[in-house]
Amino acid sequence: MSHVKAGGSSKNIHNNAGQRLGVKRFGGQKVRAGEVLVRQTGSTKIAGPGTYISRDFTIHAAVDGVVSFAKVKKAKFTGKTVPRTQVIVK
Predict the structure, then answer these.
(1) Of 57, 16, 18, nearest in space to 37 by CA
(2) Beta strand pairing call for 59-61 and 51-53
(3) Percentage of the chain exceeding pLDDT 70
């Protein structure tokens, strides 16, 4: 009887680089228009006044100003409200 291990159990295959997600500019920091504020997967934080959200859910500054964050309640499609962090530039 042969002793060859069954296929499908390779272990060293998950060696891709991280996506460098997260908050890039924190509350109180001055920003210029177009700067990246938050890189995220999905809309965990939402764009508020003075910001816009791009195709990959990255939040950018639309105007020059100071970054701030606020907690808001956002309604989902089902009607349930969930807390979200809103990114604001004033």
Answers:
(1) 57
(2) antiparallel
(3) 91
Burial 30-69 (b: 16+ CB within 10 A, else e): ebeeeeebbbbeeeebbbbebbebeeebbbbbeeebebbb
pTM, 2 dp:
0.80
Domain 22-89 in CATH 2.40.50.100? The answer is yes
d(CA 6, CA 89): 56
Q: Which residues of the chain have pLDDT under 70?
A: 1-2, 4-9
Token pair 């006044």: residue: 49
